[in-house]
Amino acid sequence: MKNVLKQIQSSIAILFEQTARLYAAGDAAGAKRAYQQWLTEHGDSPLAHAVYFNLGVLQAETNELPAAERSYRSALNHQPDFLQAAFNLGTTLEKQQRFVEALASWENLLALPDTVSGEKLDLLILALNGRGRLLEDLKRYSEAEAEFTRSLLLKPDQPNVIHHWLHLRQKQCNWPVLSELPGLTPEKMLGYASALSMLDLSDDPELQLKAAQRYVKEKVEPDLLPLANPTGYGHCKLRIGYLSSDFKLHAVSMLTVEMLELHDREHFEIYGFCWSQDDGSALRQRVLAALDIHVPIGHLSDAQAAQCIRDAEIDILVDLQGLTAGARINILARRPAPIQVAYLGFPGTSGMPFIDYTLSDRYVLPESALTHFSEQPLYLPEVFQVCDRQRPVGPTPTRASCGLPEDAFVFCAFNNNHKYTPELFTVWLNILRRTPNSMLWLLADNESVQPNLLAFCAQNDIAAERLVFAPRALPPDYLARYRIADLFLDCFPFNGGTTVNDALWMGLPVLTRSGRTFASRMAGSLLHNTGLEELVVENFEDYENLAVALATQPARLADIKSRLSAARENSELFSTAEQVRKIETMFCQIASYEPEKDMSAKKSSRTGEQTAAAATSTIAVTAPVQSDAKRFLHVGCGPQRKASTTRGFNSDDWIELRLDINEEVQPDIVGTMTDMSRVADASVDAIFSSHNIEHLFPHEVPLALQEFIRVLKADGFAVITCPDLKSVCALVAEDKLIEPAYQSAAGPIAPIDILYGHRPEIAMGNTYMAHRCGFTEKVLVSSLQAAGFATVISITRPESFDIWAVASKSPRSADEMRALAAVHFIK
Fold it and tell me: Whole-prediction pTM value?
């Protein structure tokens, strides 16, 4: 018997070696045949379970899911306690959307005691996390939370599990959300919160930016090259692509459907790239009918989907998804369009460096908040939202049919439950306490919400019957409910977006609190636009007092409702056609598209010699400048923002002006430095020019510096950086011309790149990246002095191979120059 077993072990070793070679050579089919042949000959072997398992892995990798399922089941038939096979079987069943069976398969692993270690512990955690994720998808939130809790007790440091666990608690109103677990403090949990959860957890814009950037860092694939033609395509009609997984019965489609319908087809072609599930809704059919071209990309990988968008030559790609569930940011990371814009899907910064702009207004995204936004704002003149004036409304229900008393004052709050916080809910209960004949009408989005909120009421001595819970309803019936409520109570710090729009459209006043973040200012933006800014407060004390006042002063509330009714006809928010025209104007500006001109001539001008006139489109979308504000001119900035300049400029004391053309079109670095005719004499306080001057020919350097002198005020100064050829040549002397000297955001940089320009960009046709002259510290300082700068201070940074200089137009003391250097030389 021992000899037979030895022979089988030997044959398996040979089999595994053979299949490994076949797989490495790309012959997965040959490897599967080898496994199947061995099983035909040795199917009753005591080691057959291992062969079945390996065969199942190969079949799963080649998407033969039913075959992989059979192989894993055969492995378990031969060895019932084969835990890895049980886990893989569950994964295979989930991919076939057989969710209940997948959960059952993983249950076998849950019998493992929490004291296991090594591979068994890893499998137990995988099974708990797999079940938690699937139960969350099935909206069985309390069960999902229990699985994730056990997983975190076994292994606390799991960022992805923590952010799911937190959001589950938010959805269930299971407070406090940041509940301490062994090895996990609330502070540590907050550091792992997802970007979406952070909108509910904090009104701190810095925390929201960090959460978004953390997600992007974790999820974006490395070393992705941009696909889009940076010079554009010169289409006679501008091609706008909308990217979303929500072309269905979803809040984003509810807002945008009429915008899609009203786009000007004479000058725009509208594409929709979506991975939405067909929910059979009338809204989905309306969205698809509003598109000129609908391209489903759900079956494509991120790389294939990005190439599909690139092949369509989309001029502007509008991301309606952001960092919400189902996000596919690696499509955007490949930059399939030369210009990429965020809109509506995510009410905060995406943290994505490959998203150029965000459509907003000056209330929802004030200039003071731009330091915490990775995107540049495209400010719509009045309000950031569009809406659907054609949304169908059902018959008005009776209060009795909704479980509401006829004579009560009804506060309603129909935002998603995850937006509720204990601080906010305490204020709502205080309002009920101070208005005895009142009710709070809420949504109960899952089975855990109602008991959790009623328990909170009991803790605060509010009777359960003061709350009425409404089930989900189809949009027409949901809208009709607003007609029988008296006042909408908005959430904080994550305001309602679509829900507030719906309430106002239906004539229901909304009380909101505005804060510091985009998400906390959405409702305030809508109320200001409809002339109801008195319903916007800045703290919970005023929120509570105003709610009580409105509930007890019927004449005051009636006046507000009358003005809201008039706003339906004359406010920008509900003038959808006008809003669409203004959005289209923004699109034309950022794409340098001029509909009235012959587009073939435009295309020729893009590919021919660049001119100063072509270098000015983004000025139109920068912030208006107040006469008493300090202004710095950001020269040749491309995709860089104020936050990417220096510590000195990245403050509320400075307003950024940009002179570059649309940064996704070939940047006219030469034109914007040698001809600043659009900038008045002595009109700016400072200039920031980072790594531009080396792109000029030597004879153009004096012209550019003389332009700097001309536009600067008498006491103005310029901050200039460029490569340091002295430190680079030291590496060249060591024969390290093409060896990476340091790592940049664009990839490894070798001395040859510093001398002549970034090779990958130049190879892609971006010839503007070529370097045409060079500087040492001595040469740069002498050039600045020759141009007329009175005082210059400079440093070299050998570790970064660059030179930094501050050049003052007027004489300054050494102490003044050192003070300028202190805030501008170190980022």
Answer: 0.70
